[in-house]
Amino acid sequence: MATETDPTTDEVSIESTRSEREPPGPDGLPVIGNTFALASDVFGFYERLAHEYEGDVAHYRVAGDTGYLLTHPDHVEQVLVTDAPRFVKGEMQQRQIGSAFGEGMLLAENDDWRDQRTTAQPAFYRERIETYAPVAVSHAEAMAADWNDGETIEIHDAMTELTLSVLAWSLFGIDVRGRQSAVRAAATATRDRFDTSRLGAYLPEWIPTPVNRQYKHSLSSLREFIEELIDERRAADELGEDLLSLLVAATDTGGMDDDTLRDNMATFLFAGHETTALALTYTWFLLGHHPDVQERLHAELDEVLGDAPPTAADLPELDYTEQVVKEAMRLYPPVWTTFREPIEDIEIGGYTIPEGTVVSLPQWIIHRDERWYDAPLEFRPERWVDGDDRPEYAYYPFGGGPRHCIGMRFARMEAQLVVATLAREFAVESITDASLDLTASANTLPAEPVKLRLSRR
Ligand code: HEM
């Protein structure tokens, strides 16, 4: 029988009061809210919000808009999986990065998105993706051939060069190594456009700064270049092995017109090369600070590979290599947060999140939360050995639900093969301090050069 002290009744009444309340958060200044705090140090701002306000839901105000930071894995699962149809990518992301991705699937919504994803998905099946393994290995081997014993290198540039060349080959069948091309020019101009260490990153695109002009020019050259390639593939008697050829064949039967196909090829290039380069950069940086981990990695590579370069068939045996890359993406997730906008008021964690606001699901915070990870700031690949009982969305470097990263398999395979290929030949020592400065650009970028000293093994 229910009494006045019935805990169930109490809980319901607390919940209903709470859901009508605004989640807690800093006041900020009138009009601009928390804009300065957020712009000057996003990671620090998020960390303060997550730690100072209980309940894993906090609000903030940026330039007049209200945002909500959700820091529990259950919230991530609710937004990305269970309640996914009640959210869109939304207006803010469209405004910030829409011009680079055009009509491509990263920002497409509803049926548009579904048709594109269904058409493109078979090109990313395991059997297809594994045909690109030799490309990753041979490009990494060529890079190793240029490295010298005792040399100091900047690894972020090196990995960006490598992942761009692997992707250009896999997507378009072209070799951009050491050459200027529309692909390289667009990659560079996009990086400059979103470089938050430059004032230009905060100016709208229509202001004709040199960086903006270069960005627009290179985007339209890239689009023309891809259109020519599409025409070439359509005219050819036989299709090639690159992803574009597969998609040209797939789109013959509908699902994507040529403009959307073109925008998706650009999307794969932009979404795929810097992220994978960052996963590799942080892996090397961490290895260079942890000789014990590196020793175990070398032992595994020697035992499994012997004198041969790795292949996709070796990957199931390279468990420790996989754990090293996985742990690096936990500590330094290349994508530091995932944004969504609810299309109706929605209750999350006992609070009502209003329609049309922005919710932020920060990999950066949840991946480093001591509720899910012992000693969360330590680099411990072996934490992934045993089955774990942490919530599924305590780790989501590739997002989750229907819109999880379509390139996940490609990226993980490439990263593991590149680590295996290069670590077979070289050991690294980090010169850059362990307290690496970061910038929250479109991705989690190092704010300083990441230097390594190489020694030939
Ligand atoms: C380590 C490397 C990578 C990381 C960390 C990464 C991360 C992510 C994340 C977090 C999302 C979800 C975004 C959201 O829900 O808002 C995403 C989506 C996406 N990624 Fe990746 N990505 C990587 C590599 C790649 C590669 C190699 C490609 C293409 C070849 C790619 C293409 C895409 C596309 C097209 C989407 C949008 C999917 C959709 O909305 O259906 N990514 N990625």
TrEMBL record:
Residues 1-29 are annotated as: Disordered. The keyword Membrane does not apply. Coiled coil: none annotated. GO terms for molecular function: metal ion binding; monooxygenase activity. Keywords: Heme, Iron, Metal-binding, Monooxygenase, Oxidoreductase. It holds the Pfam family p450. Belongs to the cytochrome P450 family. This is Cytochrome P450. It comes from Halocatena marina. The lineage of its organism: Archaea, Methanobacteriati, Methanobacteriota, Stenosarchaea group, Halobacteria.
